[in-house]
Amino acid sequence: MAGLELLSDEGYRVDGRRAGELRKVRARMGVFAQADGSAYIEQGNTKVLAVVYGPHEMRGSRSKALHDRALVNCQYSMATFSTGERKRRPHGDRKSSEMTLHLKQTFEAAILTQLYPRSQIDIYVQVLQADGGNYCASVNAATLATIDAGIPMRDYVCASSAGFIEDTPLADLNYVEEAAGGPQVALALLPKSDQIALLEMNSRLHEDHLDQVIEAAIKACKDIYTVLDQVVREHVHEVTTLLGE
Amino acid sequence: MASVVLSEAEKVYIVHGIQEDLRVDGRGCEDYRCTEVETDVVSNTSGSARVKLGHTDILVGVKAEMGTPKLEKPDEGYLEFFVDCSANATPEFEGRGGEELGTEIVNTLYRIFSNGSSIDLKSLCINPREHCWVLYVDVLLLECGGNLFDAISIAVKAALFNTRIPKVRVLEDDEGSKEIELSDDPYDCIRLNVDNVPCIITLSKIGCRHVVDATLQEEACSLASLLLSVTNRGTLTCMKKLGKGSLDPESIFEMMETGKKVGKTLHIALQKTLEKEESLGTTRQKVGFLG
Amino acid sequence: MKETPLSNCERRFLLRAIEERKRLDGRQSYDYRNVRISFGADYGCCIVELGRTKVLGQVSCELVSPKLNRATEGILFFNLELSPMASPAFEPGRQSELLVKLNRLLERCLRNSKCIDTESLCVVAGVKVWQIRVDLHLLNHDGNIIDAASIAAIVALCHFRRPDVSVQGDEVTLYTPEERDPVPLSIHHMPICVSFAFFQQGTYLLVDPSEREERVMDGLLVIAMNKHREICTIQSSGGIMLLKDQVLRCSKITGVKVAEITELIQKALENDRKVRKEGGKFGFAESIPNQKISAFKMERAPVDTNDVEEQAEEIITKADPPSEVFAKPILQTPGTAQIGEGIENSWGDLEESEREEQEEDNSDDATTSGVQKMETEEISGVSKTKKEADTIILSDSEEEVVVVLEPEETRKKTRTHTSAKQENSSSKKTFNKKRKKKRTTH
Fold this sequence. Notes:
In chain A, 31% of the residues lie in helices and 29% in strands. With 245 residues, chain A is an alpha+beta fold. Chain A starts with 24 loop residues before the first strand and ends with a helix. The longest helix of chain B has 32 residues. Chains A and B meet through strand 2, strand 3, strand 4 and strand 5 of A and strand 3 and strand 6 of B.
């Protein structure tokens, strides 16, 4: 978009944030009673719901069961009214399949699947409103949902996106910044061990700037981790009070 | 429909309870569960609504787009429905598993809205034969706890009530080519009149009595149910029988009377809630799923 | 058809070899296989061979009406197909996860990085634009499809010429190749993908994994870069956990590799252009080498046989006696015989399986050397082996412990007149003959 400054001279972005600032994150666990685990997260205007079923017996073909660990089955779907232009198919197209694969890969690395051989864990993510950072919000929501379901994980999986404009790395891009076409990095991190579960980059970025951008993304992930951790603790506190311990 | 496994003893318990006008959760046969309705949940739609009826959770988004009117109705806009049974509700709906149920719901919705008096389609017309508003109503099924059709119809009515269609002006050029101009003011919009939009009431026959708003367990006990579409004045616009069992014509008449009565009360309650929400305006705190 | 599973032995062998920084084909950790680029007779058609992985790329163009929200840009369409020709594991018609992954990666690498100027593909804004379609077919799968495919795609795009178009007012004229020379596409830069395979939770890292290595790897990191050291795409897949330093190290290696490959591509394009200009032969028919043996000749190599006997004596005196004493064969039933006790049972201890493989090899060598020693012993005239030569019967086992039989007379004859080398070859020939015999009977 010509004429739209993504980073003003004073250092403010389109929505008034600074370069390294995240959008407002609000989350809630235990949204649905029927699923084993569910969570809802709002990152700015991006709203994502995640639901976890499992671990349960293999549905469908038994032949796909793994003898020594659990199978993680994901589905990423966007509501037809979630994007600015109406989407025809909620899932099944190439982009959704790719996101599904990425989610599966991320959570296979994080969940302790060796504890549940021959079983299946389903993670379903539904994007209600898409305003940039869809994959990252999905990963964060799915982490909360998995914790809500009580499935053991190595660590939280926190994801954040980062971009690079005028020699400044930006954290947590929104839709306008993503659509501008500049370089964007999506990173899923296990915060305690600094291990990267998924790294994805689009558009052109010079090799020398790669370090800065990845650093900005890692920092943003760690900030999200503090928020998610607080949400989990509050939720557990609430639940134990209701149980009347 | 999401299936739930019930033992014989549980079924007997439910049936006997209903015969005494006492349901498992303490309701009477004609009582609805506690319903939460909230509008304007998704911001990049023209209108949206979320309905939580017990364990059933529905999210409806309405997007208004410009299109060409249908050939047989050149001076009217139209509605397009789409139902997405998401895998959130139950793992059986993953991939293409929810398509069957989705198509069934879509067909029912089309039938109800094909009646010309339910919604004023002429107000959706911009230029006869050339431009009109097309309303894409997308229903997202998030959780399935029984009584889907009722919840969906309430949500659709609430979403249509919440829909704000921007006003357009048609400018005629000298050469006769028309230009569409969207008004700049985001609050300058037309609203739809949803007074005549009917609501669906599902009556399930369990034993020899019928109940309104069946839960999943109660649906598993009933062999036949009757789907009625009732307007706020109590007129029946559409009727459909579901299920494997058979219904006696006597019981059908009884169910229709109950349906009309319940429908009128439902409409009054819904209208009150929607107007109250509307009156709060911008001071209303949007809760959405965070509440 | 389902893919043949990899046995545990092979898997362990590969992993151990990688730990010792050895690869099956002898490359170093950061070495690429040979890249060969050949062009077809038409513009825009090329075959890229990366080792044995072959990808065919074909570019075609068409005039279409543009997308509604991008009225002044041309359309790029990429399609990679994994045909069953490449590997029996690929089934036709089924869109697998691998296909989605590869297609999306190619799309992101080539489209999002804006390597082609789409604005230049516009003919009449909002009415007619060029749609460039790149079709890639995998012809043989030997690992690292993505690298080969990305090279094929960019080479094909660089090689392609589209028909010339001129616009005068409202009139658009499309010239055929005969009227005006076709015009090349305007390409800003050439993004090339480089894949890194990770093993043992990221401890070991290999560039350009072959198919076997891909099967045992933990995860894959693909970095696409152009020669100006701009990263176009990064994608990590598989369940590996990366550290930031690993990613930065990989990006440095990518820079080096991409520079080499880009140079290669430029040279290949230059060659093709020269050949076409000079009117020489070009096209696939010329590029596939004739693998016919038209003449086979081995040169005579003179061998010094003067001091064979002294050398043999030396070897005998220095050598230890054969570790295995070949006992008399025990005849169990007519047709089967047993010589010796056989080697140790290797099924019990799976940890030592590789060591035992080596042991077997050693024992193999021991037996062949034993055979030679037996023969050399007979030179010195020990005749007690006469009996053994008569009674040793070939065992029916599939093991390579084969004792070669030859009547004494011919042996003695050949020994005195032949050199040490030919001795070996003769023994090996008989060795092989016996093995071949076994094969035919089975």
